[in-house]
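New to this. Help decode the following:
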Amino acid sequence: MIKPTAKILLVSVLFSLISACATNIAGRNQFMLVSENSAIQASSQAYTNMLEPFQKEGKLDSNPKTVERVNRITNKLIEQAKILRQNTRSWGWSVKVIDDAETVNAWCMAGGKMAIYTGLINKLNATDDEIAQVMGHEISHALANHSAERMSIAMANNMALKALKDNTELGDGSLGLAAAAAQVALTLPNSRTGESEADKIGIELAAKAGFDPNAAVTLWQKMAKVSGNGGMEWLSTHPSPENRQAALKKMIPEMMPYYRSAKGN
């Protein structure tokens, strides 16, 4: 039997599930139990926690040449992100290169906290244009508030579980819970809708930053070739429907004027 205190918390959780919503830059209504500001604060803490083990092992930003390359690419994307969403100028943008030759992955938390694994760069033999497509896609998840959306799902599940188990209510430990949710959110698969939004925003960001839109297609072709070799964590959170390459290819003509303009400048 659920105890009275647990019932009260469960009712509050259910009310939150019904009432929490927001509209992102793609114009879609999202379930939002976590505000973007809260997601940014929690992600900052989670970012530090996640990178600390790599830092201790000397596997963070260990190759200056790769770090310079990644920063050069992402800085151009960040400038376009700031134009698309003016309020992101205040974000603490950051990108780290994780030295892990076996892991093909990259991510961006709320507030522009990013990382890319050397396995993605080296196993795919990724060009600058293809790296830009990956990081543009990841940045787009943050711009479209997908991080907070997935955190909301993770926290809602956690809160409901706490209510059913009659655990203590959220209090001083709520930030810790939020940081944990931010980490869990990175492991949750993106919805097909969320992926489509990030594909569209990401290819446009990259084109406006001067990166070839055609690389969005070649990137997924390379992903398909190496996906059977293990270590493809990116595909576990970025599901790839069969028509994805075709959808991206259809976007290219619309993106080419942005690309040509950026290269001309």
Remarks:
- Strands lie at 22-23, 29-30, 94-98, 106-109, 113-117.
- The chain has one domain: 36-144+173-264.
